[in-house]
Amino acid sequence: MSKVSFLSTPSYEESVVYTAVCRHFQEHFQALPKPGMRVLIKPNLLSARKPSAAVTTHHSLIAAVIRCLLEIGVTDIVVADSPGGLYNQEHFRAVCSAAGLIRPDIEPYLNRDFSYGQVRPSIAAPLVHSYNIITPAITADYIINIPKLKTHAMTTVSAGVKNLFGTIPGLQKPDMHRRFPDISGFSKMLCELAITIKPDLTILDAVDSMEGNGPGGGTVKHTGYTFASTDVFALDIAACRFMGLEPMDIPHIATAAEMGLLPDGIEYSGDEFSPSAQPFILPDATKSTSFSDNVPRPLRWAASKVMDALLRSYPHVDRKKCVGCGKCAESCPQKIISITGGKATMPRRGCISCFCCQEMCPAHAIGVHRGLKNL
Q1: What is the CATH number for 315?
Q2: The pLDDT of residue 294 is above 80
């Protein structure tokens, strides 16, 4: 049985968020770090976006976690993430600045070590022999994972498990998409990475969440809660239920079940747990229509494969919105996107529909097209 604390957190007002984090710490006091431990705070710092866009973990939550750690005697603290794009100090500082992290109670703890090392999963027959992981995650004695609750064009949900993908440095993340282009393989990689990183506590920012074409181009949805758990998979199950989604319909949750990683049950504490009043709007890329139900059962698997191929979603560029910044080309695992005449060009041949380009587009110029795959 795993525990998830669920607390009403109606705004990002400093006192409101601090009170919520204190309560989460109290709910999980037996698992808190001890003085002398090196603690990593791992937020979601996807890209250089202002806090009101609900793309990144809100700075007030990061500040509250730092304050609570200091109050229990933990002083060796680092805030680190590998945003989309290059993994270096200049890019990291730019993202932090846009996200509101350059403030006196956070800036001294921002990461200054942009090296990385190899970590081998401690499981039998791992999918990945070794992961390149940012050094702050390797050297930490205790990891606090602080994701943002969002929809995601590839994984459907971005919460605790998906946030740990940010421990892979810089442009090596698109390479992982290239290695695992289908959602089943990518989901297994995410689950394996989660048990390799093993966050000690995950605190979910669901004060303002994102629905629609997340994780970077969706719509802000005020949801007014924070969650916390020492079990990142239990937290993701709770997040799915809160979003009005069936957890086993989410690829990485279903994969975690197959791997035996899910808890036997979940105990909720704090405020009364209930789903969001309105289910989250899903990304265009994940919306599908099943035609296989009307096909004789022995043929359904083949029919499903055929229809998936024919009706596959892929990104397309709104040339009126495109500013030609090249972020899409930089993040493309297949390296098939080019900037021509100041606009992005996206051929369908070679596209693996990972939607990294949509995720990183600052101009919201990349949409989703569903139709017959043009080979």
Answers
A1: 3.30.70.20
A2: no
